[in-house]
Amino acid sequence: MSALLPTYARSGLSFARGDGAFLVTEAGERYLDFASGVAVTALGHAHPHLIAALTEQANKVWHVSNLHHIPEQERLGERLCAATFADRVFFANSGAEAVECAIKAARRYHFKSGAPERYRLVTFDGAFHGRTLATIAAGGQAKHLEGFGPPVDGFDHVAGFDIEAVEAAVGEETAGILIEPIMGEGGMREVSWPFLQALRALCDEKGILLILDEVQTGVGRTGRFYAHEWAGITPDIMASAKGLGGGFPVGACLTTEAVGSAMTAGSHGSTFGGNPLAMAVGNAVLDVVLAPRFLEGVAQMGLRLKQRLAAIVDEHGDVVEQIRGQGLMVGMKCRIENQKLLAALRDRRLLTVQAGDNVVRLLPPLIVSEAEIDLACDTIDAACVALKSDARVRV
């Protein structure tokens, strides 16, 4: 019997090491990793620049707490602000913590602006913002809320991406709107650029804040540094994590000056957030992701992946009916149970991730090659053939 809480339905696989886009078991079996630890290992496994940065910092100092100045934290914050809309950054350890900070910052902004009654956020059905009590309330999914008592107050859910429905949900207590540019856990559902633009305009009109959860879509995953750049808008607050640390726990809440200045000393904090080890790795990730032509390469690989997958839909539409997503954040909407396709791929040593709405997610590392994309798509094709020929699977 395991000593661990039984909160995960684990695959049973165990990996001894990683190399680029591959994970290797103790027995030497190589798996092509198109899960990336759920979009976390953005630069693949054992990236030499990340290893060097972490090792160098580990030989200096690991942790001092935010009671003291941390130079590498200041540097990463300045680089994130220079590359985005933001003026201020708060560092945490995870996406959920980054979203929690975003929620608190929105409420605090209105409190400091003389409107403490503005504390509610408009959110969207099917969203996923984390596993804390506040973030499961923001997501509003029954399967995440079950058994944890009354949901945290302050969230008004809207079904679908309907600007009129959003406007109707905005009231005198509304502090802002919280949305993912692509709903990862929610089935890789894309939010259209015009809808994001309409949300930005609505927030400006009503004097409320636009908050983007870019925990999964950020740090190059869609072919831009952050996904909202495709829509030509900027948020007031943004949560980032996952790929930001390349596998090391790093979360960040980015804000404008107006919002950030409301978060005064003692209003928020984190013991581990922004420690020297995390900041060394975060800076190393930006060295790679913000290098000239890197994001262009991500976009090109994303296009190749979607083109290959489109051919699979044409050939195996009775297994995979639709391709969703952008860049290297892609979902296959299945006609069969998504767990069956996921298992068939794992049996062929291709790792993927399930998502809501009967979707299988493909989240390869941003350094993935054409050959690795082709290998993954050949594997998906073979799995579809096998599933259709298996009399036990109804397609």
Residue-averaged pLDDT: 96
Tell me the overall shape. globular
Strand fraction band? 15-25%
- What structural class do the secondary elements suggest? alpha/beta
The ordered string of helix (H) and strand (E) elements is EEEHHHEHEHHEHEEEHEEEHHHEEHEEEH
Description:
- The chain has 395 residues and is an alpha/beta fold.
- The protein is 37% helix and 18% strand.
- It contains 13 helices and 17 strands.
- It has helices at residues 36-39, 48-58, 71-83, 95-112, 133-139, 142-145, 163-169, 193-206, 257-260, 276-289, 294-315, 338-347, 370-389; strands at 15-19, 22-25, 30-33, 88-92, 120-124, 155-158, 174-179, 182-183, 189-190, 209-213, 237-240, 251-255, 320-326, 329-334, 350-351, 353-355, 359-362.
- A 7-stranded mixed sheet has the order 4-12-11-10-7-5-6, sandwiched between helices. The chain has a 4-stranded mixed sheet with strand order 1-2-3-15.
- α2 (48-58) packs antiparallel against α10 and α11 (294-315) runs parallel beside α13 (370-389).
- The longest helix has 22 residues, at 294-315.
- The radius of gyration is 21 Å and the shape is globular.
- The model has no long low-confidence stretch (mean pLDDT 96).
